[in-house]
Amino acid sequence: MSSEAGLLLDKLRQLNAEVVQLVESISPEDWQGQHTGENWTLGIAAHHIALGYDYGMSWIENASSGQPITTTPNGIDALNAEGVTLYANLSQGEVVARLNQNLATLEKMVLGLSETGLNRNVLWVTFGREVNALYLMRTTIRHTTNHLESLKQALNSQSV
Asked: What structural domains does the chain harbor?
């Protein structure tokens, strides 16, 4: 594994720890009642981060094996809409477990990739550009960071 992949995994671990700490600090009332900028409850937004690890892993697996990324923005929107319904009633403990499990699965997969797999460029069809597993790891970090910030903003707006 490259040193860059190791640093990216370290960043994901650090972000996940921050998400978990935040999730565990949310009151039960806010968990289901507060809404983020995406108009999701805090529970849905936190679970969405866990789903992001799965999406990232799928894309990273595709790239590392030379398969193009064919996911479209409409496809992502459909998955997000489905998630709002499917995961609306998850407890904080269930979301924390999924965050940790999904990250561990992503980490194990990345640790098993060769340098060739990490650096293999494939087409991200929707965007018409070449990407590799390292780029997609950074995309997963951005996704996690953006939704963590959304959670924080929703909680901060409540306390103002």
From this structure: 3-159 (1.20.120.450)
